[in-house]
Design goal:
Layout: E1 7-11, H1 19-29, E2 34-40, E3 61-66, E4 69-74, H2 78-86, E5 96-103, H3 115-125, E6 129-135, H4 143-157, E7 165-170, E8 180-183, E9 192-198, E10 204-210, H5 220-225, E11 228-233, H6 244-253
Parallel strand pairs: 1-2, 1-5, 2-4, 5-6, 6-7, 8-11
Antiparallel strand pairs: 3-4, 7-11, 9-10
Helix pairs in contact: 1-4, 2-3
Pfam family, one: SurE
Protein name: 5'-nucleotidase
InterPro entries: SurE (IPR030048), SurE-like_Pase/nucleotidase (IPR002828), SurE-like_sf (IPR036523)
Length: 254
């Protein structure tokens, strides 16, 4: 299907004013896609698939226009933005969802907590294919490289079965300096440790302690560090076809 017949929802978790989404949306619109941008009003990083405060309340929005694209911010999470778009709150529901460009990579097991990745998984839950794209820098210089990769990924996923999701990480370097594109497994070792502590006033607190595991060959962390664009197909919650747990519990209750 040609781009001008496809509606693409672009969202993120850094907020609708973030430079990543401001670079991505005009690049995708320039290719002829029907682009609708809906993202959080403020930074909602790390919220996962939360859609709290969704039911039974009006949701505040703000909009502005830049480079011919209307950017709409909502008082809610990326997953909520996807849900609202899919039920027609911003016109015709999207055919595809593009989440990003996230500032900083999304690698390894902790992508479970990423609002960027969760937006893509929420789309899949609702029957829409999606791409989550992140750049490997907190202060990026080459947004256009990630935007180009996102556009090519979008064209590919449009022909895949509904509900297909990939998460992609892009080195922060010029397009002609990329080492290539590789399928990557999720790095299996967490790069930080959660520590429980208390505030001086006695309330419980959580602190994060960095961990420096050795990169696992073939993982997103190792390949990204080597300059490759990493591509990882992912799925959301899926049952295990095994009745052992139910059988064991039934025996214990007998």
């Amino acid at each position: 299907m040609p781009p001008d017949q496809l509606r693409v929802l672009i969202t993120n978790d850094d907020g609708y004013l973030a430079p990543g989404i401001r670079a991505l949306a005009p690049a995708i619109a320039a290719l002829g896609y029907d682009v609708v941008v809906v993202a959080p009003l403020v930074d909602e990083s790390g919220v996962g698939s939360a859609r709290a405060r969704m039911v039974g309340r009006p949701i505040r929005t703000e909009s502005d226009e830049e480079n011919g694209v209307t950017f709409t911010g909502i008082d809610g999470t990326p997953a909520l933005a996807v849900t609202l778009a899919n039920v027609g709150a911003f016109g015709r529901p999207p055919d595809l969802v593009l989440s990003g460009i996230n500032r900083g990579h999304n690698i390894g097991v902790p992508i479970f907590h990423s609002g960027t990745v969760a937006a893509a998984l929420t789309a899949a839950e609702q029957g829409t294919s999606a791409v989550a794209i992140s750049i490997d820098s907190e202060t990026p210089s080459y947004w256009e490289t990630s935007a180009t990769v996102a556009a090519e990924a979008l064209a590919w996923i449009a022909a895949e079965p509904a509900g297909t999701v990939v998460t992609i990480n892009v080195p922060d370097r010029p397009l002609d300096q990329l080492a290539g594109v590789r399928h990557a497994s999720l790095h299996p070792i967490k790069r930080s440790r959660v520590i429980g502590t208390k505030a001086p006033t006695g309330e419980p607190m959580i602190e994060i302690e960095p961990v420096q595991p050795n990169p696992v060959a073939g993982s997103d962390e190792a390949l990204l560090a080597a300059g490759f664009v990493t591509v990882t197909p992912i799925v959301g919650i899926r049952e295990i076809k095994d009745d052992a747990a139910a059988t064991a519990l039934a025996k214990r209750l007998a």
